[in-house]
Amino acid sequence: MGARKSRWGWLQDGEDYETEFKSDRKQVSDHDLVEAVVCLANGSGGRLLIGVEDDGRVTGAVGRHEHGGTDPVRLAALIANRTEPPVTCQVNEVESDGSTVLVVEVPHSPRVTGTTSGTYLRRAMGQDGSATCRPLRAHELLAREIDRGAADFARLPIPGAGWEDLDPFEFERVRRLVAASGNRADRVLAKLSDREITAALGLETTEAEATAGALLLFGREAAVRTHIPTHQAAFQVQQRRATTTELATVTQGTEKETRRLLAGMVERGWIQPRGERKGRSWHLSAAADRELQAPEGYTRIRGFEPLQQEQMVLTHVTAHGSITRGQAAELCALSPSQASRLLKRLVSEGKLRQQGERKGTYYALPE
């Protein structure tokens, strides 16, 4: 949770990533209270101060149980019972200027947590610099589970793959690498059998079932291409084409790491790049489409895209009167130079006319 402050230091510093204020003049509902806890738990943990206004004024917490008071143990139990996996909070009543403030200390959750009704929230910083709670979307849930080690796709079985798809030479290569390493614990692997290596790495593989990690580490190239069509799934984005940024989300890596991965796939003939560096996109090669029994995908991308782009630009101009190079680039997912070539071609064909100069240039329908 970071450096620990006094409770009144939290008030003076105001709301931040780890501190949330809740007015209790109309009594915070159990539902809203639990959602606030979930939000903090999916951040870095923190504390929820009930009975404090957004500006830091203490107005006091309303008693939630018998005799006008609040039982901290019961409130902590309510939070645990309404979160999944349960969040174990510490609840205290603190007096300030004659008013009671409920301080709910929320631990950082090693797993993504939600309410038992299925609500997932995360802590985030708004554009104005203030802390807020936002919905945790499906792809973010998956990414966080992987980052925290809660989901390990290397252990997933790959349908149709088995021990025969693993290459003995790849095991030998790993043995040579670990034997030459300076880490004594790693060198133990060099003395294990092939099956013992996969078991030691948590990638147990049987005759009829290989895990994704075992196939990626030790698989024959043909088997990897057949059984782990990661590239196929990635390129389903935007009709089998995707940008580096989009693929970085799929691979759970940085854009630099993703570009390095994509360069290797280009060398193997699996994919082809389109456009310049900033506006570059990627799609499956003709050879890969044939392997996947989908040659029409390559034809569609290479043959139909110019017609689609032309139609999109003309439709935009008809509807709005004109289009700029930047608008065309954004509309058709092109780089600025590609958009310029598209617009100049439409001008040369008499379908558009160019108006203005330099930064003021725009394109409209012929008079």
TrEMBL record:
Pfam families: SLFN_AlbA_2. SUPFAM superfamilies: Winged helix' DNA-binding domain. Residues 15-125 form the Schlafen AlbA-2 domain. InterPro entries: Schlafen_AlbA_2_dom, Schlafen_AlbA_2_dom_sf, WH-like_DNA-bd_sf, WH_DNA-bd_sf. This is DNA binding domain-containing protein. It comes from Lipingzhangella rawalii.
